[in-house]
């Protein structure tokens, strides 16, 4: 067996976040050091509770949940995705009570964990707005040596946006945080997984129905069925792509693109801008869809 990847999952669960977390906990290829939460798909109290409930499903009382930022760095919190994720973030799916009370101060906890780690040994898997990660970068620069890579789901280059015409929800939620994270790509490995790729990795009904009859496989099926309640025959698996990238980057075609971020006003705040004066960033622009789905399925056995 290859060495487990030591990771911190930063998340705002959310249906596709839930699927990504269940995969990571069930795949046996991750050493999850902690789950930090951020307001995004829903407010911070609910995202934190959902994260704790997902860990409870897997019996993982050893993994702490740490409550993070409840608002973006400088803007007001958006509240536009309840139509997709429901007012509880999971469209009414009932999770068990968290096994432990959450800790506080996600960015401080991340910094402390990174500072104690071997250089380059911890990956940050970012599934939501990048507020917590930006706070680590700006407030605790001495801890960044512990980061192996930051893999973030967000943005779009050639695909239409899902927040504004050119903006994706995670990045639109806190454009200033995106700017901080992309800016650090000059000296840290930052990998972006945008809508250009995640919309190609889709759960069809046969994938949903074929998930194994395990505890987390059954919950993953319930999550995907809830994701399709509006009559869709498939759903893009946005956040699980981050986990797949961490395990098998060869499934993706990476390009180095010089990027900046639109820090203007809505509707396109947070949009990625290709700019020769921007920071070179690794961006996933292609994917082996069948290989990605096979790897995802393997995490629910």
TrEMBL record:
Q: Does the keyword Hydrolase apply?
A: yes
List the Pfam families hit by this protein, alphabetically.
Answer: IU_nuc_hydro
**Stored SUPFAM superfamilies:** Nucleoside hydrolase (SSF53590)
Which segments cross the bilayer? none
Keyword Hydrolase listed: yes
**What is any one of the record's Gene Ontology cellular component terms?**
cytosol
- Which UniProt key words apply to this protein? Glycosidase, Hydrolase
Domain of life, source organism:
Bacteria
Domain (Inosine/uridine-preferring nucleoside hydrolase) ranges: 7-291
Q: What terms describe the molecular function in GO for this protein?
A: purine nucleosidase activity
Q: Which GO terms describe its biological process?
A: purine nucleoside catabolic process
Indicate what this protein is called per its UniProt record: Inosine/uridine-preferring nucleoside hydrolase domain-containing protein
């Amino acid at each position: 067996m290859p060495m487990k990847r030591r990771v911190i999952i930063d998340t705002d669960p959310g249906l596709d976040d839930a699927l990504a977390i269940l995969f990571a906990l069930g795949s046996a290829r991750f050493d999850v050091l902690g789950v930090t939460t951020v307001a995004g798909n829903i407010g911070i109290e609910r995202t934190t509770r959902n994260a704790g409930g997902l860990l409870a499903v897997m019996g993982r009382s050893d993994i702490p949940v740490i409550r993070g930022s409840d608002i973006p760095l400088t803007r007001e919190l958006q509240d536009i995705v309840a139509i997709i994720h429901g007012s509880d973030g999971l469209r009414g799916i009932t999770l068990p009570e968290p096994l432990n009370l959450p800790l506080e101060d996600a960015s401080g906890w991340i910094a402390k964990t990174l500072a104690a780690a071997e250089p380059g040994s911890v990956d940050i898997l970012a599934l939501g707005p990048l507020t917590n990660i930006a706070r680590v970068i700006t407030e605790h620069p001495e801890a960044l040596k512990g980061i192996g890579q930051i893999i973030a789901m967000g943005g779009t280059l050639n695909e239409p946006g899902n927040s504004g015409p050119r903006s994706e929800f995670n990045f639109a939620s806190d454009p200033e945080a995106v700017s901080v994270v992309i800016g650090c790509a000059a000296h840290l490995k930052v990998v972006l997984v945008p809508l250009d790729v995640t919309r190609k990795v889709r759960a069809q009904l046969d994938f949903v129905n074929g998930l194994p009859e395990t505890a987390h496989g059954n919950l993953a099926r319930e999550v995907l069925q809830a994701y399709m309640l509006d009559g869709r025959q498939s759903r893009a698996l946005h956040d699980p792509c981050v986990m797949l990238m961490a395990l098998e980057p060869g499934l993706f075609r990476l390009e180095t693109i010089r990027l900046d971020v639109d820090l203007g006003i809505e509707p396109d705040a947070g949009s990625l801008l290709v700019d020769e004066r921007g920071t070179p960033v690794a961006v996933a622009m292609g994917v082996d869809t069948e290989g990605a789905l096979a790897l995802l399925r393997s995490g629910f056995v």
